[in-house]
Amino acid sequence: MMQEETILPAIDDFNQDRQAGLRPGVVICIINKELKILLGLKQEYQIWEIPQGGIPMGEDLVSALKKEVTEEMGERFLKSLFIPEKPLVATDKIIFPEQSLGGQILKVGGREVPMVGKKYYVCLVVQRENIEPEKIEYSEFKWVSFDEGRKVVETIPQKGKKRVLKKILEVLRDGGLIK
């Protein structure tokens, strides 16, 4: 269930996620001056998504956010963004269906824990300058309104991802952050 957040999670919170078999990840909602959100096309899967990535052991949320933006869209694009001191707007999780568990392992304090799902830390950042992201991990980008985003969501085959993206768009719309 998506929850609104007001405080930043600590590194220990991410370790608790891992102990529960959940891979913690940051979802980066980048909003422009027109109140549209940035989506990237993952060429290998042919899926439009909000930029996101895992949170490595020992890394805090804001550091993981900055690292993902730099790795996926470039340093210049990162510099065009305003990142609030507390960017977290929501959390959510996906538990994988039993048959799709691929034996992935999470390492937690020297122990190995089977991965059963993902925990998403949804963050909001604002584009200050009109700089295009580099196509490093995404083959295309587009800025979408709430309605355009909902249409994109319907093309996502995975039920969990579809539900999470739909909820994120609703939280942003209800908060007046996207039109």
Quick summary of this structure?
This protein has 179 residues and is an alpha+beta fold.
Description:
Residues 21-170 form the Nudix hydrolase domain. This protein is an alpha+beta fold and 179 residues long. The chain has one domain (3-174): Nucleoside Triphosphate Pyrophosphohydrolase (Alpha-Beta Complex), CATH 3.90.79.10. Helix content is 28%, strand content 32%. The chain has helices at 11-19, 61-73, 75-79, 146-153, 159-174, and strands at 3-4, 22-31, 37-42, 47-49, 52-54, 81-82, 88-95, 105-108, 111-114, 117-127, 140-144. The strands form 3 sheets. Strands 1, 2, 5, 6, 7 and 10 form a 6-stranded mixed β-sheet that branches. It has a 3-stranded antiparallel β-sheet with strand order 4-3-11, covered by helices on one side. The radius of gyration is 16 Å and the shape is globular. Residues 1-5 have low confidence and may be disordered.
Question: How would the blueprint of this fold be written?
Answer:
Elements: E1 3-4, H1 11-19, E2 22-31, E3 37-42, E4 47-49, E5 52-54, H2 61-73, H3 75-79, E6 81-82, E7 88-95, E8 105-108, E9 111-114, E10 117-127, E11 140-144, H4 146-153, H5 159-174
Parallel strand pairs: 2-10
Antiparallel strand pairs: 1-7, 2-5, 3-4, 3-11, 6-10, 7-10, 8-9
Organism: Candidatus Portnoybacteria bacterium CG11_big_fil_rev_8_21_14_0_20_44_10
Domain Nudix hydrolase: 21-170
Protein name: Nudix hydrolase domain-containing protein
Provide tags for this entry:
179 residues; alpha+beta; Nucleoside Triphosphate Pyrophosphohydrolase; six-stranded mixed beta sheet; three-stranded antiparallel beta sheet; globular; disordered N terminus
